[in-house]
Structure prediction request, 522 residues.
Amino acid sequence: MSNQQRQLIKKYVDLVLSRWRILASSLLLGITIGLVYYVIVPKIYQSTAVLSYEQQQISPGKMDPEQGRIRLQESLATLRELVTSRNNLEKVINQFALYEEARKQLPLEDVIEMMRKQITIQSTGKGDIFSVSFRGGDPQKVTRVANGLAALFIEENMKYREERAADIAKYTQSELALAKKVLDEKEQQMRDYKLKYFNEMPEQRAGNLTQLQALMKQNQEIQNSIQELERTKVMVQEQANVQRSIESLQAPSESRSSTQYPETDGDRLLRQQAYLEELLGKYTESHPEVRHIKQSIQRLEEKIRKGGGARQNGASSGAGKSAQAHLAGSKLQLQLKQIEGTIEQLREEQKKIPPQIDQYKKWIEAVPVREAEWTGFTRDYNELRRHYDQLVSQSLQAQSVENLERNQKGSKFKIVDSARVPEKPFKPNFLTIVFVAMAAGLGLSFGSVLLFDFADTSFKQIGELEAYIGVPVICAIPFIEKDAETRRDRIIFRISLALIAGYAVLLIGAIVYMKLKGMIII
Prediction:
């Protein structure tokens, strides 16, 4: 540290010591002003109620009105707005008769805003614990209002959760109804589509292929049967031609026999039996002509059994062969007609198979198109179904939550510590005011000392004189104080010290007295 800096510090120390009266007076004056301010300023008391957040013991699922576990800060932000709303605060003001003078002079909106500023709702930082505070001039009233706000907080929370649960349940019901309507429409579209293109659906492809192969095989079998019947028909026709040749050769002898021997019962029986077989090839047994021929045959058989034909055995032996040949020819003709009828029937059946084959081919060829379209249907349907199932689950959970809230078994707030009557004011703080007053007094005193020193234009240091006149100082003559001046300074010092000390003692006594009387609360 240089000599100049040491001289500067010594200058200010001497300046402060020489002005100690100003410093002491300013300090005491500041304390006095602070004390007076503390006494006359209205006291503001604060009462606080502590609440806790209790999680619901029964959890219906994830679909809670607060989306699971309610975070405390979010609940506070919401419920703070509900508790400090105009309607609720107006009820509290009327209930506890608050701000009567202010209500006479100010609009109700300003009074409510004034009260809103006196309410503090904040988390304590210790888990799910928070506090509700209210400030005012009357300790008893402040306590009642704080407890009233805590009760209102719990009431609003229950009401808010119940209303929110009801809203969620109603919303999920409406969404569920809408989703069900859309899902039903989509299911109807899918049903109509499937009924319209049932044979073209992918799951029918294997069955269609099987049916197609069966039809092709059936067509081939019918074709083979027709070919086999055609060959049989040719053989039967050849046999019929041979039989006709034989009959033509036997015709002359038969004509001679017929002239010698008349037609017997046996000949008629054979002829009618051949005719019956021919009729059975065309008609059923219930046909009148068939029944008539059967009755005629039955009568001839009975007649022959009774002996009516014994007389004619000789005559019929010659004609028997002719009748048998005629019967064999009739059988061949009948067989030929049956073969032709069967061939015609098979051809009719074969005509029906190609359209069926074409139809099955079309169904099989349309499978890729229907599969792509059905995939689009099922993709949309699966999304709608998944959304619908979620809404069903959410609706059930929302109804459970609503029942819990109505029975007050959901998450709720509970008063842990009720508000108590405050023993000391929240504002003003005595120690804070005193320290501020002391700081202000000291600042004022130091400022006054520096101001007086700045206003004093006399030279106090040799360097100041040398800097001013530009000539070095050779010597300095010290100040010689007389005895009378010395005695006067001592008297003034003692009187000043006594006054300052007496005022300080008086000030301390006043503070002690006010503390004992309860006027000052530290």
Remarks:
- DSSP finds 15 helices and four strands in the chain.
- The first strand starts at residue 45 and ends at 54.
- The chain has a mean pLDDT of 76.
